[in-house]
Each structure stands twice: as C-alpha cells, then as structure tokens.
C-alpha cells in the first residue's frame, strides 16, 4: 500500500519566483519539461487574478508553453465539465497559497476532487505551496499560533484533501517558529509524521519516500517514539509535555522513507534518480 | 560528580516583573525568603542604572528587604575586595540580561568569578535571565540567527562561566524560533544537551536534575542519539542534516535528569519537594 497516490511537490511557501526558480523548475521538469501542460488552481486565494497572473508569468518565463489558470469560487464551478477537462488535460497541477479551508470546502467531494485523485493515479504531478501544501494530507492544520510552546489549544485541524496519508504538513516552518504547533498537531495522533517545511523548500513525494529540494530544510517530527505525553489528561490551553520525540533535519538532497519513518542515508535504494546528492 | 556546583535558576528572558512574578519569587524563596540577601549584578547590560533600579523595585515589592546592585564596568572593579564581599554576603545572586560576552570578558578569571563559584559551593543561589542564562554553561551561544534551519555559520559560540557542565542554553526559545540555532550548537559536540528555555520560564537546577517553572516550556534537545550528521564534511553556511535527534518538551512541574539524559516521570526520586506537580 502506497502512502501517496502519485508524485507530489509540497512546498513550504515563499518559493523563489524571481531567481533560478529551482522548485518551480523541478515541478515543471517532473510534469514533462517542454511538453508540460500546467494548470494553476487559485481556489485558495481571494486574489485569484493577481496570483494567477503571477504564476502564468513565472511558468512562461521558465519555458512552459501551455499554462492556464483555473479559479473556483463556488461548488458549482468545481463540478463543471470544463474544469474537469482542464485537469484531465494537465500534466502538472499547481495549488497556490491562500487559505486551506477554501480548498477543502470548495473542492471536497466535487468532480474536480475526483479528477485530481484520478489524475494522480495516471501520472499527473500535483504541487502546492503554503495553503496548497497543508491541504495535501488526510488531516491538515487549518491555523495556529507560532512562536509558542506546544499546547492543545493553539492548533486547529480539519480534514484535508487526502493526497498523502500518514503525515501532517506545516509550512513557513523555521521562518514562523512553528515547532510548537506542529508538535501540538502530531501529539494528538502520533501515527502521523509531522513534516515542517521551510520557505523556498519542498518535498518531492514519489511512492513511499520523499526527497528534499530548495533552500531550507524539512524537519521530520516523529512522535511515534513518545515515551510520555500528558495529552490524555489535558484541558484546552494547558501546556503539553512530550518526552522522547524523534527529530530529523533534512536539507536539499536528503531523502526519507515514509513507511519506515527513517531517513534514507546510504543511497541504497534508487540513487539513480537525477539530482540526488550522493550521501555517503 | 555533580554537573552543577549549587542551585541555579536559569531563566529564558522576559520573566514576569509586574504580575505574580512567580519565577523571581521562587528565586527569592530558594535564597531564604524573608531572610534573603539578594545581589543583582548588571554587568551584562549597558544600562546598569535603569536595569538595576527595575530589579530593586521588583524584589522589594515581593518582600526582599536586603537587595543591592553591583555593576562592573571594568576588570579592576571585578577584582575589588568590596565586590567580593558583597557576593560573600549574598544568599542569592541575580544576573540581568544584556550581552553574555560582557559577563565572560569582564568577570572571567577575576575575584568575582572565584567568589561566585565558591558561593555556589556554600549554598548560595545563582540566577540569570537571558544573557545571564546563556553564560551559565561551559560553552555558550554568544549570538546567532533565529527562524532558520540549522547551519554551522548561524551560531557563534564562546567559553561560558562554567556554573553548569554538559549543556548549552538558549533563551527566548519558542518566541524567537531558535530550534535551528540550538541544533547548530549541540551538533558540534553532541555530548552537550541543548536546553531551549522559553520566555518567562526557568529551570531550577539542583544536583543532577532540574525542574521547570513558569509559563512556557523547556525544550531539551539531545543530539547524543544522532544516527547521522553531515557536519564533519560541511563548509561554513552549508545546511546541516541531522538524523535521530531526541526532543523532550517539558512545561512547568516536569523534571529532567541531566546525567541520565531522561525526563523524571514517576516522581520516584524526591517527590517531597514542594511545588512539584504530581506526574502519575
């Protein structure tokens, strides 16, 4: 059983759009390079025209000839045959930032939702940044407080779009001091691995593993190793005590196995994949 | 061999000075309550009069009759017999915030330095906040960048006053997103436990263990469990990869054994100490 249905590019927000655009370039490459047909979905943002135009400009600049924008502002639009057709036609779909709850409430259970899952199975690449990253998992962080110690009350969770199971994703991770809120999320169900993705940093998920690209790092927070948690006895806003969390810090080039919950350190698997840094 | 010479109160900065002043009250209590003789050392700050007056006001308000300020602006002053006498007379010494390098360069190897170590052995209580917290260890963080992933280049270290061995302390921890810089520090010598102390939060170290007091939490970062680090091969400013770090989040009432590198969870030791929350 694969934890992810296809290839995902999950970006921690604020990806470079003016310089080398390494992360967006990788997404385009995975989507077919010059033959890529990119669809930007702006449902998360309340500024769909501005944000859409920005991504059209970037993707064209890095060589994509076929790039379109799909905005969805109501559920009717999310069930329209033309929207489904645009997804079926795309080799790569990109979700912009904004508010993740707009994504799940406007798209959840619609024909677009179904077309995205079907597309992934058929080899489409799905990328998302910021809110578009958070919504990838089965349960997602909706909002929460940064720069604080872990407390139950600081993080609101909700169902996500379920493109990847077994993880909870947080973005802008180091930049907004979000260790506390990610710990608060994974402590509730330590089966979930917490992926804290820094800005201008992404994980590329293929099958059961991911690799890191970009400028920062990915913090993998594994609460499965907890030896003590006071959570069962807590009231809202009480401070969390968590003993024995496992933490991995993975910058660009490093890989992680999602089911084994372990970094892949020796290139023993498929070190044939281009762009992978040699690790040992 | 004890890791700490006496009782230390190590405060993560921004301790409450207007409300209940729980942390400062605990320091006063440990120093003898009504019989406490408190000496505030302002060497870290370039505003010794303002900062000194502020602490005199707070300590008097919470019932200390004998509170004095000692400022040291050059090494001559740090060798003066009257300064030494003030330390010998104090039951509790409190280091204010400021710049930790001022503390070590102005006091290191002086008669004040010697008197502080001697005082601790005889039962004096030593407290410090912010810069006054960082300087407590053998090697201290001088400065560094917050809100970033771990990199060697982001943290400057220097010798500390060596009141506690085996740890590196960081303060304003959650509030300034300092996980990355504390990891960068402990990765260099994983023998050191990283203590990330939140604002208005403190560890009270007695013998081989500490307990947490205050509003936030203490993050204990144990890199001793590392299974992989790319540090030996890095150039300055390269991103650190760290796999298998152990992390404990301890809010008020929780205790930690410094030599065993483990939280004390069952109250099996001396749960007789007042103010300890029952853990099981």
From TrEMBL, chains A, B:
Coiled coil: none annotated. It is an enzyme of class 3 (hydrolase). Its EC number is 3.4.15.6. InterPro entries: Class_I_gatase-like, Peptidase_S51, Peptidase_S51_cyanophycinase. It comes from the Bacteria. GO terms for molecular function: carboxypeptidase activity; peptidyl-dipeptidase activity. It catalyses: [L-4-(L-arginin-2-N-yl)aspartate](n) + H2O = [L-4-(L-arginin-2-N-yl)aspartate](n-1) + L-4-(L-arginin-2-N-yl)aspartate. Keywords: Carboxypeptidase, Hydrolase, Protease, Serine protease. Belongs to the peptidase S51 family. Exopeptidase that catalyzes the hydrolytic cleavage of multi-L-arginyl-poly-L-aspartic acid (cyanophycin; a water-insoluble reserve polymer) into aspartate-arginine dipeptides. This is Cyanophycinase.
